[in-house]
Write a structure and sequence with these properties.
Length: about 210
């Protein structure tokens, strides 16, 4: 599903992805074997097991089609169990384009994150009433015009809290069958902003794409 944010004269299109639970790689060998996969059938210049990992290959494992930011987000969460040396061994096999994408989109510390940054966070999700707590809007194309639609129409909303019960951040994911568990998890997402009906910024939230337990 695609939605638009920004102003009416300059809307920005982005896709709301279905959240996925993933299993992190246990070591560098497992990561390389999974990522150096040759891509999809139409990636005719990409080859499996050639010691070169491309954007297409990471995208295949991440379930993405040509979304560099989401693919890097997946990679960071999927390699969270690797030590620095093991992770560096995987990154060393990136081709130039993937290396550039990694430098552009690798997550930043949550405290320093701004809108559109990738972030990885830990905490306990507490589901909330989206209509009561998630009051921002997004612009959706309807014919030739854009209509402001409540974020609660598309998202399940949560308060992410630490073990002391203190709220860290509002988080959300695309509505679907699966909801986040109310126990400690690690999640990966993109910092987004909410706007009110006057299109002024109302707050920020993390749009969750992947998580691990």
């Amino acid at each position: 599903m695609f939605v638009y944010t920004g102003c009416n004269t300059n809307p920005i299109k982005h896709k709301i992805y279905t959240m996925e639970k993933i299993t992190p790689f246990k070591n560098a060998e497992e990561a390389i074997a999974s990522l150096d996969n040759g891509g999809r059938f139409y990636n005719i210049f990409t080859h499996a097991n050639d010691q070169v990992i491309t954007e297409a290959e990471v995208g295949k494992v991440a379930g993405m089609f040509a979304d560099k930011q989401q693919s890097i987000l997946f990679f960071e969460l999927a390699t969270q169990l690797l030590d620095e040396t093991s992770k560096a061994a995987v990154i060393a096999q990136f081709d130039e384009k993937l290396q550039a994408s990694y430098e552009q989109f690798k997550p930043v510390p949550f405290a320093a994150a701004t809108v559109s940054n990738n972030v990885i966070m830990q905490g306990i999700p507490h589901h909330v009433d989206s209509k009561m707590k998630f009051t921002g809007f997004m612009m959706v194309p309807v014919g030739t015009v854009f209509t402001m639609i409540p974020l609660a129409h598309y998202y399940e909303a949560y308060e992410l809290r630490n073990e002391q019960g203190e709220e860290l951040m509002m988080i959300a994911h695309k509505k679907g069958k699966e909801k986040l568990p109310a126990r400690p998890i690690t999640l990966a997402g993109v910092m987004k902003e909410m706007k009110d009906m006057d299109k002024t910024t109302e707050g920020q939230f993390v749009e969750v794409s992947y998580y691990v337990e």
